[in-house]
Amino acid sequence: MTPAKMTPDDGSDRDARTASAGLFSRRGRLRWVARRLIMVCVLALAVLFGGFLWFANAVTSLKAPDGVKADAIVVLTGGYLRIEQALGLLRDGAGKRLLISGAHPSTTPTQIRKVTAASPDLFKCCVDIGYDAIDTIGNANEISRWIRDHGYKSILVVTNNYHMPRSLHELRRADPQTEFIPYPVINSDLTRKAWFTEPDVLRTMLSEYGKVVLATMRDWFGIYRGTGLRTEDAAQSAAKSAP
To answer: How confident is the model at residue 101 (pLDDT cuts 50, 70, 90)?
Structure first.
C-alpha cells in the first residue's frame, strides 16, 4: 500500500494548528496578555477598595469643630438641616456673612427663613442666596465668585459629612487661594453603628465615593465638565447652537 501523499493544504493546516497551539500554550502570547490583564484588574480593584476604606474612614471620623471662626460661611443646599446649622453658626458669630449656594429658582428667601425659623433681621442683614449652581461643581464656582466679590480669605463650609470630601475637592480646585474649613452636618453618628449593614447608607457612601473618584480622574486627565452654573451653561449651549 502506498503512503498517502501530503498536499500543500495539509502542511498549511498543520502550521496553523501549531501557531494556534503556540498562542494558547502556557507561554503563549495570549495567555501572557490575559495574565497581565487579570493582574491589572485585581490591582485596580484593590486600589478602589482601599480608596473606599480611606473615604469611609475620613467621612465617619469627621467632627464639627468647636469654637471655629472664619471670615464667612457657605452652605451647599441639599436639605434644610444644613441651612439650619449654617444659620446657627452665623447667629453665634462664626462668620460675618452666609451664602446659601444652589437654591432652587422657585425658592424664596421668605420660605427658607420660615422653614428654618431664622430671625428676619439676621436674614436681612447677613444672608445671601445663590440660585445659579446646579451641582457641586456649580456650588464651587458660585461660592468662588461670591468670595471674590467680598474679598474673604477663610470660609466655613457646611454640608453633610459624606458630601464634604467632594465639596472641598471642588472648592479648592475652583479657588486654591482661600482657606476652606469643613463643618460637617452629621445626621447620625456613623462611628457608633455598623453603617455598612444598612443598604441606604452603604448605597449613599458608595455613590459619593464613586463621584469623588470620577472628579479626581477628571482633573488628572483634564476633562472639561462644564461650569455647573445655570446662566453660563445656558449661554454656552446657546452659543453652540447659534448659526
So the answer is: very high
Residue 228: which region, alpha, beta or left (left: phi > 0; alpha: psi -120 to 50)? left
Selection from 50, 59, 51 nearest residue 217 by Cα: 51
pLDDT in tens, 157-193: 999 999 999 999 999 999 999 999 999 998 666 665 6
| Most confident by average pLDDT, 29-43, 57-71, 82-96 | 82-96
Burial class (CB in 10 A: 0-12, 13-18, 19+), 24: exposed
Q: Residues with Cβ < 8 Å from 99, sequence gap 6 or more?
A: 72, 73, 74, 75, 128, 129, 130, 142, 143, 146
List the alpha helices (DSSP H) in 75-187.
80-91, 109-116, 120-126, 136-150, 164-174
Residue 141 vs residues 133, 161, 188, 195: alpha-carbon distances, Å: 8, 20, 29, 32
CB 90 within 8 A of CB 112: no
Classify domain 72-186+196-231 at the CATH class level: alpha beta
Determine the average pLDDT of the residues in 136-163: 96
pTM assigned to the model: 0.80
Is residue 25 within 8 A of residue 31, CB to CB? The reply is: yes
